[in-house]
Specification:
Number of domains: 1
Order of helices and strands: HHEEHEEEE
Strand content: 25-35%
Distance between the termini: 47 Å
Number of strands: 6
CATH topology: Thiol Ester Dehydrase, Chain A
CATH superfamily: Hotdog Thioesterase
Shape: globular
Helix content: 10-25%
CATH class: Alpha Beta
Structural class: alpha+beta
């Protein structure tokens, strides 16, 4: 259980938005986040993209919790009510798990337990097992040098001591070359 939680906490967008994986077990996951003004749309309520992202994080954890790589084939959301500032919770539950396809229902609710959105996801389960110890590097390209500054390197968030921009390891794809306009 703790190994699963540590693995999914590597999700860069979830960390950036302040999402937390509260629970994960095979076919089930619960994610939470605190909605603040930085998550609001122009009408002063939680942006639909943020609500979707919270549901998607729960979907990601639930469908990959079996230990094989699962990728989204389809995801859709139905917004039931607007959410304001405060905590939101998304609970993903596996509704079917065939050989290659899994389906998931995710309920996003507010602090009082009222339904904010219904999210449905379908995942394709690949044959590849998840390497629970693999490093997920946030930056695939080194920062560009300028005459005034030296490039700065920050350690990988999984504390593997690799540096973004360093030569790729066998488990990491090679950096993409910069495209000039």
């Amino acid at each position: 259980m703790e190994q699963l939680k540590r693995y999914f906490q590597r999700d860069a967008l979830a960390r950036r938005l302040g999402m937390v994986l509260a629970e994960v077990s095979p076919g089930r996951a619960v994610t939470r986040m605190q909605i603040g003004q930085e998550h609001f749309n122009i009408f002063g309520t939680a942006h639909g993209g943020v609500v979707f992202a919270l549901g998607d994080y729960a979907f990601e954890a639930a469908c990959n919790s079996h230990g094989t790589v699962a990728i989204a084939l389809n995801a859709r959301i139905l917004f039931v009510k607007a959410a304001g500032a405060g905590p939101l919770t998304a609970e993903a539950v596996e509704t079917s798990c065939g050989g290659k396809i899994g389906t998931y229902d995710i309920r996003v609710s507010d602090e009082s337990g009222e339904l904010v959105a219904l999210f449905q996801g379908m995942a394709y389960r690949k044959r590849d097992p998840i390497d629970w110890n693999a490093c997920v590097r946030l930056s695939r390209r080194p920062k560009e040098r300028t005459r005034q500054t030296r490039p700065t390197h920050t350690p990988c968030p999984c504390e593997c001591r690799e540096r973004p921009g360093s030569p790729p390891t066998p488990r990491s794809p090679a950096p993409r070359p910069a495209v000039s306009a």
